[in-house]
């Protein structure tokens, strides 16, 4: 037993889990930054289209995140309680269900990209760029769904390195193809934003294939063709009990961001481009904190499944003690050097002026994000997903979305007021999550369950 626990500590240690996730996320950040930099060589309008489209895609991913995220937590819990076969079954089910959802989304985005963009208030002058981009990248939503399910399942077995290596390869392929399509180099035709869309789908296809190969051997018993028909209603219900509040929670955030993007779009393409540039830079600030939050969710779910509740309780504070200082330092670096970095993306004085104000607001925004992500993920890891869902539904839509419209649009205070509402939303939700975690409700329930057994 001591040797088993030692191996688990090596596999599910916080930093062992964190550093591959961080490298993977950092590479995704670099991909986004390089993507934005390359697209900015086409035009600021093209950048606005990419930023707007990504919000749409992120909103739609919540439809399969319900299954993928719930399955990830259940997998870690089952492995913690030594139920390997149950974990394997959950993983197979999650991949099949998310693939079906992703296929439906792909067909929808290929069929009606224009009406969707108009419904979300995208400025009419951006439509010629947006429609082909949304239809091509959106047509690959099935790949996004599979990547989500496969990487989540693999990570929650304790293997965070596999997805990291694939992220390296995907980034390299995507950047090389972007360069070729945008500038007409390396034998590629010059296709502009359409070429960027083709590059995105191609790199995701290759990444999906590689993730699938790792997934087949992720558990002690190899996954084979016969497992296509594998289904367990009880286990799937367990996934949905944890997963549907997660999906609603994630959907609440993404759809609220999409609505806020539509508010910003009514302010003009300059504000929309500024928000897109800032989204790229902001990712740098909370990258390590976000990686720690994902890692601590895996660790706490595993500890909770094993009945090690005291260790699970303390894990969240260890993550915050490491993550918060790093995020604060990164945010200050962004304030000091952000304008110089933005100069690489655009020379538009109006956009740079807007971004200059938003850089300072990030000093308040980013620490709140880390608090909220870490505490929320900890609650999710022990199955307290309904609470985080209720908090998200209430606070996001009243504070972040409702107040953004009231202050930013109705009263005309603009994008700075919208950012202020986003900051208030993050702090209020993090306070609710902190109080809940201190209460230890689900941890005490687990302890009572173990004593009864």
Automatic annotation (TrEMBL):
Q: Which UniProt keywords apply?
A: Cell membrane, Membrane, Transmembrane, Transmembrane helix, Transport
Name the membrane topology term. Answer: Multi-pass membrane protein
Subcellular locations according to the entry: Cell membrane
Q: What InterPro entries does this protein map onto? A: MATE_fam, MdtK-like, YsiQ
UniProt keyword Mitochondrion, yes or no: no
Task: Give the stretches traversing the membrane.
Answer: 12-31, 56-76, 97-117, 129-150, 162-184, 196-219, 239-264, 284-304, 316-338, 350-366, 387-407, 413-435
Pfam families listed in its UniProt record? MatE
Q: Does the keyword Cell membrane apply?
A: yes
What domain of life? Bacteria
Q: Which NCBIfam families match?
A: matE
Identification of the protein by name? Transporter YisQ
**Lineage, broadest ranks:** Bacteria, Bacillati, Bacillota, Bacilli, Bacillales
């Amino acid at each position: 037993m001591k040797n088993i626990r030692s191996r688990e500590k090596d596999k599910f240690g916080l930093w062992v889990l964190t550093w591959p996730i961080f490298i993977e996320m950092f590479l995704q950040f670099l991909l986004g930054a390089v993507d934005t930099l390359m697209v900015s060589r086409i035009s600021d309008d093209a950048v606005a289209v990419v930023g707007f489209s990504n919000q749409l895609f992120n909103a739609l991913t919540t439809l399969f995140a319900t299954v993928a995220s719930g399955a990830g937590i259940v997998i870690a819990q089952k492995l913690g309680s030594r139920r390997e076969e149950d974990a394997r079954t959950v993983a197979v089910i999650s991949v099949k269900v998310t693939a079906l959802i992703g296929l439906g989304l792909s067909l929808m985005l290929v069929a009606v990209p224009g009406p969707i963009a108009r419904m979300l208030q995208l400025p009419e002058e951006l439509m010629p760029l947006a429609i082909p981009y949304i239809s091509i990248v959106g047509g690959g939503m099935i790949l996004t769904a599979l990547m989500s399910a496969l990487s989540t399942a693999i990570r929650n077995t304790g293997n965070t390195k596999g997805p990291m290596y694939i992220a390296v390869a995907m980034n390299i392929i995507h950047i090389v193809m972007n360069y070729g399509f945008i500038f007409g180099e390396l034998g590629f035709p010059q296709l502009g934003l359409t070429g960027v869309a083709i590059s995105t789908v191609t790199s995701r296809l290759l990444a999906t294939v590689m993730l699938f190969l790792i997934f087949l051997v992720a558990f002690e018993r190899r996954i084979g063709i016969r497992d296509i028909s594998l289904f367990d209603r009880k286990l799937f219900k367990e996934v949905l009990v944890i997963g549907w509040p997660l999906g609603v929670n994630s959907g609440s955030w993404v759809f609220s961001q999409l609505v806020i993007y539509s508010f910003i779009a009514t302010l003009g393409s300059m504000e929309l481009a500024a928000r897109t540039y800032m989204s790229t830079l902001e990712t740098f600030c909370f990258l390590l904190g976000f990686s720690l939050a994902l890692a601590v969710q895996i660790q706490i779910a595993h500890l909770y499944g094993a009945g090690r509740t005291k260790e699970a309780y303390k894990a969240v504070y260890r993550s915050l003690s490491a993550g918060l200082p790093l995020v604060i330092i990164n945010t200050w670096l962004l304030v000091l050097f952000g304008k110089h970095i933005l100069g690489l993306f655009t020379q538009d004085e109006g956009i740079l002026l807007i971004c200059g104000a938003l850089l300072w607001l990030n000093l308040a925004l980013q620490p709140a994000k880390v608090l909220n992500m870490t505490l929320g993920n900890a609650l999710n890891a022990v199955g307290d997903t309904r609470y985080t869902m209720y908090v998200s539904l209430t606070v996001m839509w009243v504070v972040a979305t409702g107040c953004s419209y009231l202050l930013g649009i109705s009263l005309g205070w603009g994008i700075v007021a919208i950012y202020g509402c986003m900051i208030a939303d993050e702090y209020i939700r993090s306070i609710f999550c902190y109080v809940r975690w201190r209460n230890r409700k689900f941890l005490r329930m687990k302890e009572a369950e173990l004593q009864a057994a």
